[in-house]
Amino acid sequence: MRALHLLEPPAPGAAWAPFAGVRPIAELRAGRWRIRERWERALGVRATSIVGNHCAGFREDNEPPCTARPVPGPAIVAASWFAPAAPAGGKPLDLAPDTRRLEHAGTTIGWVVPAGEEFAPSAAFAASREPAPAPAASVDGLLLAGTHSLLDALDRFLGEDCADAADRADSLPPGAVVFGDPAQIRVSAAAIEPGVVFDVRHGAVVVETGAEVRHGARLEGPLWIGPGSRVLGGEIGGSAIGPDCRVRGEIKTSTFLGYANKSHDGFVGDSVVGRWVNLGAGTTTSNLKNTYGPVRLEVAGQLIETARLNVGSFFGDHAKTAIGTMLATGTVVSAGANVFGAAGVPRFVAPFAWGLGGERMTEEGFLRTAERVMARRAVAMTPERRVSLQETYARMVGL
């Protein structure tokens, strides 16, 4: 039996803002599933570790530990900058005994380490720049160039992710209004108030266990509502809403990692929302330039081409916006930042910013606020999680 390890980029940099240095790339959501979960499903084995330095010491839920140690065989080391498609027929990839690499379109995205050998990340990165003669297995999926690629992953995977779950459809909620085939609705022990609209003409809608959807909500597929999340009203479509979120208003083609709060009206489109984010009432993202041209990100002075016409905002973990916040196309709000003040919001907000005047939150203030926020979801600030956040603060506060 081979162990599975997820390999992080050696230096994720600006392209992966606002998550580089904050959380592993493997723990970001690509469609319904996190990248790590996509690899686990593709290979039929749970991950043992996440290999990388940029998020050393990361602790959150039940994710495997982050380490920079060499990986002993027998093992498979999979690139966290690649999101595998769902395995055909639901069966994990069957590797031939002599397989030594996994590849996609000629690019190496995984390494098979035999028993008695050891995997060195630095050597793998050097080798991945040149063609390798070792026998390879092809993997269908999507190469990810940065945070903006998570929107491409949403476009690519969410429909099939939700359709797969809808194959195990439960009974239709009483009082629901349905446009399309009712078989494309799956509700698992969730509370659905009468009058909720399910529009499944363009994809399935999946509502997980413990979720709640209130009267006045319109759910447009493909859409995944994670366990324990609450939809309080509005139009939600083409999105993956992670566990224990609170959402309301208009949400389009967006990914919520989990435990985020958007309880009021306002538009969020083509955006990625990190964990423990709070969007104040009326917070609105622009997701299209007036020129209708491709969106370019500006992250701490670096320019990143997304090749996408629709890009909203990227919110790092524990970021917060004041009521009425208006965000330009392609805005990046870094981890722990608090956006408020009369000035216009810049397209890049630094980590742990306190307002828009150049001040930063102290470590003590950040941890105290994080503990209060987590308690509202009945999540304890464990000693391990506190240390993880302290290390994140130390890494990011100087950016």
Question: What does this protein look like?
Answer:
- Strands 14, 16, 17, 19, 20, 22, 24, 26 and 27 form a 9-stranded parallel β-sheet that branches. Strands 15-18-21-23-25-28-33-36-38 form a 9-stranded parallel β-sheet, covered by helices on one side. A 7-stranded mixed β-sheet has the order 5-4-1-7-10-9-12, covered by helices on one side.
- Mean pLDDT is 93; it is low at 126-130.
- 15% of the residues lie in helices and 30% in strands.
- The chain has 399 residues and is an alpha/beta fold.
- The protein is built from 5 helices and 38 strands.
State the helix count: 5
Record field, number of beta strands: 38
Note the overall shape: globular
Distance between the termini: 42 Å
Helix-residue proportion: 10-25%
Strand portion, in percent?
25-35%
Rg over alpha carbons: 21 Å
Helix/strand structural class? alpha/beta
Multimer state: single chain
Contiguous uncertain segments of 5+ residues: 126-130
* Integer average pLDDT: 93
Largest sheet features? 9 strands, parallel
